[in-house]
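Structure first, sequence second, as always.
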């Protein structure tokens, strides 16, 4: 259940019998013709759908992340790495103080990767807590489903194009695929040069695939995330 649909009494009742929760993590950044909130939308939605049958509370998504490379695209907002890690750690501190001891961080943005190390560091100071970092889109079963559908999958390509990340009234995406960009070169470029290399922002591949394929992948992602919530606390 989303925390937005609970009051403090419901949270207190939950903590009297269980200590799990989910913290979705996203970003606000360019995704070609898709929503600037793709990573936040997907991270929060997969967390909510996975947690719903279990009743596990899902906190609001942290909608800003580390994405300096896309700063030349209007609408992109990036936090400094130190700022992001400080915010993440303070949220974990708050959850721990409330009594949560099993925290699944459901991450939807690759640039947030430094948070995984911060999560490990947090557990070092809280040995009775299990905080698990989960990059939902590249978890083993989900990534296998993506590659089985189409091995050319990347940022702002078909793999992020779900019915709930598209924009109403937006022009349809190009039907043809885009050659993969040189990622090694991209990582060495400042923001203006990143935009010049990428153009619309898609790293490469088709822009859209049939919804039935996307929903099959989504079902795998939800099931894999739910399995972590149920059984991922060794």
């Amino acid at each position: 259940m989303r925390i937005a649909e609970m009051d403090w009494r419901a949270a207190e009742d939950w903590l009297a019998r269980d200590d799990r929760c989910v913290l979705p993590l996203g970003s606000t950044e360019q995704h070609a013709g898709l929503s600037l909130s793709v990573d936040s939308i997907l991270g929060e939605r997969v967390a909510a759908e996975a947690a719903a049958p279990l009743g596990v509370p899902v906190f609001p998504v942290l909608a800003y992340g580390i994405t300096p490379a896309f700063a030349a695209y209007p609408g992109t907002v990036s936090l400094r790495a130190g700022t992001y890690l400080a915010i993440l750690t303070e949220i974990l501190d708050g959850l721990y103080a409330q009594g949560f001891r099993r925290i699944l961080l459901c991450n939807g943005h690759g640039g947030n990767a430094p948070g995984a190390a911060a999560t490990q560091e947090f557990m070092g100071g809280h040995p009775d807590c299990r905080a698990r970092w989960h990059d939902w889109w590249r978890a083993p079963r989900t990534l296998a489903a993506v590659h089985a559908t189409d091995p050319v999958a990347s940022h702002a390509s078909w793999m992020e194009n779900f019915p709930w990340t598209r924009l109403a009234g937006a022009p349809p995406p190009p039907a043809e695929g885009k050659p993969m960009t040189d990622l090694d070169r991209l990582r060495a470029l400042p923001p203006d040069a990143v935009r010049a290399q990428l153009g619309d922002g898609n790293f490469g591949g088709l822009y859209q695939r049939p919804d039935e394929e996307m929903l099959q992948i989504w079902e795998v992602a939800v099931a894999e995330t739910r399995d972590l919530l149920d059984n991922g606390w060794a």
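Margin note: Helices lie at 8-15, 38-51, 81-98, 114-125, 140-149, 183-186, 191-198, 211-231.
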